[in-house]
Amino acid sequence: MTQKFVTDIYPQGGWFAVTLRSPVAKGVVKSINRPPNMPPSYMLVTANDIPGVNEIDDFPAPVLAEKLSYIGEPVALLVGPNEVEVEKYASQCEIVCEEEKPSFSNLSTNSGASAFDGVVLAERTILLGAPFKTDTVKTTVQGVYRTGVQEHWYAEPHAAVASIDSQGKITIHTATQWAFHVRRSVGKMLKLPLEMITVVLYNTSMHFDGKLWYPSLISCHAALAAFAAGKPARLCLTREEDFRFSPKRNASEIRITSSLDEKGDLLGNDISVAADLGAAGVFTNEIVDNTCLGALGFYQTPFISMKAKCAQTNVPVQGPFSGFGLAQGFFAAERHASRVADTLRIDPAEWRKRHFLRKNKRLAIGIPIQDQGNMDAVMETVEAMSDYKRKWASYELLRQRVRENNAAPFRGIGVAAAYQGSGFLHASGADKGNYTVEATLKEDDTLEIRASAAPSNGSWERVVRLLAAKILALDENSVTVNNESADAAPDSGPSSASRTIAVITRLAARCCLALKKERGRAALPFVISRSVKPSNIHAWSGSAQSIRTYAVDKNAFSPISWGAAVVEIEIEQATYIPKIRGIWLCIDGGRILSEQHARRAVAVSAMHALGWASREKLSYIDGAISDEFMYNYDIPSPIDIPPIAVSFLESAKKASKPKGIGEIPFCTIPAAYAQAVSQSLDHVFEEIPLRPEDIWVAVQGDKK
């Protein structure tokens, strides 16, 4: 994997491409007026110049739009030999549109998702268990939990460089997590077979699954520019373009009403889920199902009624962020679990331990829990690491003083638990979820492993080399991992941190074990491959649905990772700025291939999860991101990083399989943070990001 940035590539004799974008949130393009003084060497490329299909592979997102769906949607490309002049002429082009009435959100503070009258991309109506008798209800707890949009904030903006040789073969340089999706999208657009397209992969840096599909769109633009001009073409978004128009973590609104009996046990949950996915359905079913799974939590609940809607709105396409919606769902479920415990005046950690789903039970999606016994050990470990029990009891006494309006330090502590899978729930698209890793043992006893996986740094390749060397008793330096070019490797599918470690690494290990078995029996070089195929079951087992039931790959949650986080805060009384006194995480991640890399990955995820929970404020106003949000977007800097302690459950390290761990911080830390702030000020906070100004407004309201 090359370490260069795509934006550093300037091909000799190359031309430059700039994107012309929609000025309206919804409408139809009527014409595009070029500047009258533009030289003939500069080209305007529109949808009419696409020889194939005007849509990227698998998803209903046009390469160049004619029917407009959001402000900033790509409409045309301006291509020319001089970068400065291309930008100048692009700014002078005029896009004439017939504007239509847009729909900007299905989330509402007052009326909820039911008030939305736009296009619904996906729905779920789920009933699990038998309804309870209303006369058994002792306590009812209600909450509305909202999560905001989050920017990925890549090391470099999205970019692609494309060139075509004399035989018509096209080579694309880009940073993508899904090389074969780029190949298929470009091939579909230009009507070229896959063997005519080479994708050279560049390091994606820290991406949190933001470079799964959008690089395919940028690559299509660069390839189309090169195809039209007959010259190499370079298309690199500016930082502002990337921030305003690239996919973000989608916003969500989840309402939960819990009915409890006189013992404080759950009788039933009524749940409403709304998610805003923007202008096109990208990973729609993946996001809605993961959000629903997270919102259900994993507590013993005899009856569940859930309705979910994912809406299409006229804002830029919202895409996957680490967890594919699972984190939004778990924020609601875990924040609500603490609300229930607070209502009952008991320790939130103790309430959780009493109500966890146990071994041999099933997740609501129908997948059996095989190793849930470790969740109790995870909770007990994180409690011991953080001294949670003593601190919670102490801060409850401080909360009482806050209630009585006496001076008291504002301190609080919160806990949350979650699980994650290691794959994708749905097997759809051209590849149908069939992915392969290949290995070759050569005559000189060197090993080459080929996979089109593109993780965010070189740590995965090092882990695979060490694992392969150990299995085959080779020197690490004699093992190479070839994943720089998609046409030199088999289709290993989309690459995300958890899936790469738990699925692709496992395939590489299976290849090595097979080579070990055949070593000495077959002539070298010996090539072997191993594949993974989806194993489908019906989603939401045992439910009655009013809509289509989607098939889900049960391997996505087999095995399951378990984790818990504790967050402790202190709020400055003058400024209401929360100071994070510590974050503690315990994770059952199965076999840890490299503890150093695993700790680093969890710590980085923890930092970004805290940023989402406490400061990264971003939203669309009338379909666009305002300058205020853009220039004031506040991500954690190294000086802001609090003490983070990470522990991997010792008993789980002996497991034969590694599990995904990178999503656990996103699924636990935000709810734990909101609970800690709520305890410190004796005020219920239900929304993230929860910033100092939000805290100040809430406290002033309480005083009034």
Total E-strand runs: 26
Rg (C-alpha, Å): 26 Å
> Structural class of the secondary elements?
alpha+beta
The helicity comes to: 25-40%
**Roughly how many Å apart are the termini?**
59 Å
* Main β sheet profile: 7 strands, mixed
Arithmetic mean of pLDDT: 88
Strand residue content: 15-25%
Strand order of the largest sheet: 3-5-1-12-9-10-11
How would you explain this protein's 3D organization?
Among the domains are: 6-101 and 158-237, Aldehyde oxidase/xanthine dehydrogenase, a/b hammerhead (Aldehyde Oxidoreductase, domain 3), CATH 3.90.1170; 359-422 and 559-704, Aldehyde oxidase/xanthine dehydrogenase, molybdopterin binding domain (Aldehyde Oxidoreductase, domain 4, 2-Layer Sandwich); 435-532, 2-Layer Sandwich (Aldehyde Oxidoreductase, domain 4), CATH 3.30.365.10. It is built from 15 helices and 26 strands. The longest helix has 22 residues, at 497-518. Residues 109-114 and 542-548 have low confidence and may be disordered. 29% of the residues lie in helices and 24% in strands. It has 704 residues and is an alpha+beta fold.
